[in-house]
Here is the input.
Amino acid sequence: MNARPDPNADIASTGVAGEELKQFIERIERLEEEKAGIADDIKEVFGELKGRGFDTKIVRKIVALRKQDANERQEQEAILELYMQALGMQ
Amino acid sequence: MNARPDPNADIASTGVAGEELKQFIERIERLEEEKAGIADDIKEVFGELKGRGFDTKIVRKIVALRKQDANERQEQEAILELYMQALGMQ
Amino acid sequence: MNARPDPNADIASTGVAGEELKQFIERIERLEEEKAGIADDIKEVFGELKGRGFDTKIVRKIVALRKQDANERQEQEAILELYMQALGMQ
Amino acid sequence: MNARPDPNADIASTGVAGEELKQFIERIERLEEEKAGIADDIKEVFGELKGRGFDTKIVRKIVALRKQDANERQEQEAILELYMQALGMQ
DNA sequence: CGCTTAATATAGCCAC
DNA sequence: GTGGCTATATTAAGCG
Here is the structure.
């Protein structure tokens, strides 16, 4: 048993749960702002790196590859080749 | 004119640019970790909120809607400015 | 249960699934051509409109805004329905 | 000299250019609807193809490859390898 | 032609 | 664990 079994119902009536909800939403929005800020930082690094003459597209690929399991990558390539052979493409 | 007009060429030879690239990549990876951490925090808030009896789906929609409202406002202002420029109203 | 549980296997052997795949790909390519054609039509309209003295940038913004307004309306309705469900109001 | 040198100015005054603009916008919106319809058709084909056991991601790749110039692809791969060598990744 | 914004594709998440 | 949905990442287009 719970003192507030259905906060949603309370929203329309007392506003108590509404206040709690507001707090949650504000926390989320604050965190999302932070996240967006970091995303901007990343963009800046790419901008800087581009200004130094590096190819951003390739750097992105490297970063992605470092995350990705090498085996999975090989598997993907293998099945892709299989398909291409079936279609007579190369 | 630039002291390093083609970093790509350097990569294969001296490795100097390779070192610089490595630095960039590590910065990016550090920032992406931070970003992922915040994403986790957000998930936690949703978990908590769910534990308090709120419907996560609805809360997500509210958050999205509030963001959209903000965007909408910006859009409206943007187009208003465009019009004013077009009409020579400065 | 399915008559062809693993088309990928068939590709390398009989080529039957390869044929089916080819059909799919050709359908997709035909549709993408159509789509590109329409995109060209849109470009033409913008060209025409520009020739009539309108500012394409502004017109694009108006179109985007009208679309956004429509989306916004749908979003509002969606969240309203969600709330009603959550509150047991059918 | 032109009978309507600045349609934008007219918008605020006579509404004549406003009417013309409306026509343009409606044409654009109609075309964009068509385009969206075809995009949906494409999605359907992918859905169907998926239901037949094909891997949509790979099929997308094939479609993209068929568009792409083979030389460009090889060049991309070459430079990627170069970078990876420089970083000691394989 | 580079930079910014829109379209598309991918991946992660959540509910069933 | 599968499938839909949202969010992110990539790619393409438009503009100056």
Chain A has a mean pLDDT of 83. Residues 39, 57, 60, 64 of chain A lie near DNA strand F (CB under 10 Å from a C1'). The CA atoms of residues 47 and 56 of chain A lie 8 Å apart. The two ends of chain A are 67 Å apart (CA to CA).
